Amino acid sequence: MKVGVVVQRYGTDVGGGAELHARYIAEHVARHAEVRVLTTCARDYVTWRNEFPVGIESVNGVAVERFPVAKERDAEDFGRRSTHVFTRQHSLHDELEWLDSEGPLSPRLIERVAAARDEFDHLLVFTARYYHAYHAARAVPDRAILVPTAERDPALGLGLFAPVFRGVRAIMYNSPEERASIQAVSSNDHVPGVIVGVGSDIPQDVDAARARRAFAFDGPYVVYVGRIDANKGCAELFDFFARYVNGHSAPPLLVLIGTRVLEIPAHPRIRHLGFVDDADKFDVIAAASALIMPSYYESLSMVALEAWALGTPVIANARCDVLLGQCLRSNGGLYYRTEQEFAGVMDRILDDPDLAGTLGRNGRDYFDRHYSWPVIEGKYLDMFARLTAAPPTHRMEPVPGWLARRRRTLAPATDVVAGLPTGPAMDTAAPRGAIA
Amino acid sequence: MAMDHSQHGRRGGHYNNRSRRGGGADRRGRDRPQAPTAEQAPRTERVDVEQIMREIRGRISQRSGVDLSNQQIQELAARRLEAVLDPRSIKPGLLDELRRSAGERPSQPEPATAQPPLFDEVLLYDSPNGLLRFLRKLLNPILRLLINPTPIAHALAVQGRLHAEAATRAADQERRQAEWNALHYEILQRLVRESARGSLEAESLAHRVESLGAKVDFNDRRVRGLEGTQVRVPRQTDASTPAVAIPGPTPTATQSSTPIPEEPGTPPAEGQSTPGSDGTRRRRRRRRGRRGAGIAAGPPMEGAPIASSTTPGETDADEGFDQEPGDDQEFEEVPLEARSPAPAGEPTTPEPEPPQAALPPGEPTPGSHEE
Predict the structure, then answer these.
(1) Nearest neighbour of B28 by CB, restricted to A286, A328, A354
(2) Which residues of B are less than 8 Å from A364 in CB distance?
(3) What CATH architecture is A2-199+373-418?
(4) Which of B11, B21, B27 sits opposite A286 (nearest CB)?
(5) Which of A222, A223, B66, B295 could anchor a disulfide with B291, C-beta 3.0 to 4.6 Å?
(6) Which residue of B has its CA nearest to A312?
(7) Is CATH 3.40.50.300 the classification given to domain A208-370?
(8) Top-confidence residue, B196 or B242
(9) How far apart, in whole angstroms, are the C-alpha atoms of residue B188 and residue A215?
(10) What does A219-233 look like in DSSP terms, one character per residue?
(11) b/e per residue, B79-97, with b = 16+ CB within 10 A?
(12) What is the mean pLDDT of residues A126-141?
């Protein structure tokens, strides 16, 4: 069996959840099949500048073919087009231009994918919202297994993605919430799909005491891991945390790990460690009282799963359906919507080590049951076997004609997303219901 | 989401078997809490985050005293802000302007693309009409015989440059002013919101203080009532039993060390000392202190044998309330049925009416106004 992986960026030093997800899947599927990755030469997702050399290389034993990006992203143009399609009535042509503007614009990658129709048994196409995924899925719909990694952001409401969700051979969802959103936006119940997610390579020698020694942590702390960005809810986190520690005689520390995009307030109880290697990251998470995930939009949150794998409870932003759903399903974390709830949750976790331990153990059990590598690999292999055994029962809808593409009939994407069902999906087989 | 027992068993086993993925060592490190014991595991694993969140929200509601959401508090604060920035006393429309400017990013000054061309002497003779331009050029030497246009052109050029600089400065000032306005509005809004929140909390705390005060008052009366019934015990029991004696450290010590007047209402002879332990003396002092000096100095009254049985010397020295550990406990040792005049079937009814003689003068007592 030969499996292709199509992804926007690829490399051991490439940051980003979806890219890491793709690499982990490629490396683990490679134990059961021949895997080849088709990707671009870009390293930076903002500009898509060509930084890797064109050609074939091996990354952790997986063959990787890189194709150049024809045009870097023009941030101003992309911003203007985004505003247009997200907030105004528009046409499919506008959306296609938005997609070109978003990138990574690599026609050679798409040509390669189209030419590889008979070369691969299955093509895993990552991250639905990008140019490469849209065109790759349309080029080989009967082989394309989409891994959407879709968040509840306005891009999900764009009309051009619905036919892709309906036309690919199968979809590997990250969470029940993601599946519910995609099914609501595209009515693709007929497309085979399974909720998989991704595992994590937790090192065996994680040592919480080592982190305390190395970083001189002398008291309880909570940790945030990820890009320190207002889009990730960090501004709200800083605000809530600063107010929380003001009323405490022995306040905890907020430890930040990740690249700084947002200015970090100069607060004595906030400490930024910068970008640390994986060993330190896992040590710090293991020694923390809790991991905080303040993000409003997540399709999976690998770092939350890693925390649970280490037995650390999670404090999540309840406005993110996926995180809320994970907390409820795992009984491994608490959540907050308001500043008062944030303070209450922090108090509860820090003041009650028994509860924190129980939540952490529940989280670890949840991780083992759903996100351990044997489970993940098994789901992928099952899907490959299922698709190989049965011929495709549906086809990709063709792109509308020249005139139809220019009719301004599509609603603003934000309006579409606002109309999607909200709340965590507690029962993976049943429609969702909102949970207060 | 409660876990069933089968899961607990499986989970507990897995949790203890760290070698599966952790290579034998606890990945959380040595300073993490250890795994629960077999007895603890089923109890601790059963946790429902929804229930915990309900408890946390309940506590938040209790603490704030009012069941207002953040949104409602903000709306309340917005109304207060309207009151603070009374539109009648300030420039009409200013509030809207501030609110708008707070929500918008301050506009950047326009780049100086429309810079007027530098004024020079050539412009003086320029014209779109070619013939006119030719005539001016032809007659230019004659003009120069009459006046010197160069300083005029220079002055105009300087003036144009100054105008451009002033315009840039004005735009910059306007931008900064807009930023300040936004900042001030934001600060003001936050202050009003916090003050609204604070006043709500203060109101809630005042209610709680009032409630706690009422409880303290109630308990105080109850204690007095119990003390009052305590002193009535000898009248209801056999005179030969040492019921009047306050229970001491041990019943034996009490019986042997406390003198029992033959008639409860009869004061002891003047100068009679009370043999007994220090503890007994202290208890008597405390009780007398609670009742005030008036009782000890007053005439012996029915139902007040302890007050009347104290020695005069003690009265002067021990006016205070010397609370000691275990003071309350000594009253608890006497069964309520024996102390309370209430029927035995109603042991938890409100405190019995304390006898009038047991209260200090001026102390408001239930039913005192009826006398």
Answers:
(1) A286
(2) 15
(3) 3-Layer(aba) Sandwich (3.40)
(4) B27
(5) B295
(6) B28
(7) no
(8) B196
(9) 40
(10) S-EEEEES-B-GGGT
(11) eebeeebeeeeeeeeebee
(12) 95
